[in-house]
Design goal:
Helices cover about 65% and strands about 0% of the residues. The protein is mainly alpha-helical.
Amino acid sequence: MLWSSCSVSFTGLTRINFQPYTYQQLVKIVESRLEGIKTFKKEAIEFAARKVGAVSGDARRALDICRYITYHIERTHFIFQLLTIGKVTSNTESS
């Protein structure tokens, strides 16, 4: 018997294929997950949603992009703080 790769997974269960999310749906999903976090402007969320919506419509990908951006913003801010502390320390030592 031949099995269709679209209808049966490797575990023998029937696969369910979901339709990709639209840009508007992705915006709502990301905004609901970022509720209370003021890191992103609405335009940035819309940009990420448009890009993901045009390629795959996968909400996980849109959220991953926001997570990636947040990580790098926090990392850059931390490095900036370390550099600032280093400058203040070196200025006080030379005084």
